[in-house]
Amino acid sequence: MRHHPPLRHLPLLILLSLALVSTAVPITITQQFKEAPQFYNSPECASTGAEEDETEGENPIFCSDQAVHVAMTLDTAYIRGSMAAILSVLQHSVCPQNIAFHFVASASANASLLTSTISSSFPYLNFRVYRFDDSAVSGLISTSIRSALDCPLNYARSYLANLLPLCVRRVVYLDSDLVLVDDIAKLAATPLGDTAVLAAPEYCNANFTSYFTPTFWSNPSLSLTFADRKACYFNTGVMVIDLNRWREGDYTTKIEEWMELQKRMRIYELGSLPPFLLVFAGNIVPVDHRWNQHGLGGDNFRGLCRDLHAGPVSLLHWSGKGKPWARLDANRPCPLDALWAPYDLLQTPFALES
Q1: Is the confidence at residue 157, as pLDDT, over 50?
Q2: Angle, nearest 10°, between helix axes 111-121 and 79-91?
Q3: What is the pLDDT of residues 295-307, one digit of tens each?
Q4: 251-264 and 273-280 helices cross at what angle (nearest 10)?
Q5: Nearest CA-CA partner of 181 in 97, 89, 287, 71
Q6: Please, are residues 100 and 67 in contact by the beta-carbon 8 Å criterion?
Q7: Cβ proximity of 213 and 281 under 8 Å
Q8: pLDDT in tens, 101-121
Q9: Within a 10 A sphere around the Cβ of 158, how many other Cβ atoms?
């Protein structure tokens, strides 16, 4: 006689079977995106060499000092935000054909799918995709206050100097949850002086001590880390980085050393930001706040709506839990999400039917 499982166990069996099926299905991009307009250089734009014969298949723009080099991470979860960010960069650039995009994707991601998605919407975009080995950092990551902050790809910004070609000397790093409303060349041209490794908007009115635990501040040797510098909070979602100076100073190793200490004693709560603060805070070139109107995604817990900071705006950044595409899809947008919507390339069902 055949025994059937009790009915009360059926939901569990169904969940287990679904879990087994889902592990065998590769990650795909279910969204479809429109093709963006092509953008052209103004007559005064410098030559990057990209217009010359490329018979060997190598675009010289990726090593050109005349190009604006932009680095971003790329994954299926944030691809919609990335597409909007790319469009905003191109649309507001005087020399859009002089921009070289360097996308970093997880080694476990479907790089060919991500590449084809970008190419379909931006057929003329100058870009490369670099594979980031998650194992390089996954063993160093400590759990933080929000699971999204624990993604290994979130730490890729610490490895740009290793990932990008040695000929790339300066790069603008951008998060995927932002849009520009100004020419990125202005940001890229930020003077770094004789010694600075990076530039970013600083916020010295923020409570800097809150980014580290009482364990950190009560330890005499650790609390002296900032003794000889005026350390201020800065957001790592928008940075101008001198990659040559980064390599010379081996700053990736310095960041990893703090992450290793964090594994032994909890000295901070917030993902990839605190190691950057520990290494660089007080030693960066401050950039005008207009280049990172951050926090539009609210805090890390509820993601409530926020207003703009006072002053002019060149870049809008939805850092925090709330993302504009998710709030728009849920029909619960914040007022400022309307500023992100014009850059959304998502192909809606209505558009597909027409």
Answers
A1: yes
A2: 40
A3: 999 876 766 888 8
A4: 120
A5: 89
A6: yes
A7: no
A8: 999 999 999 999 999 999 999
A9: 24
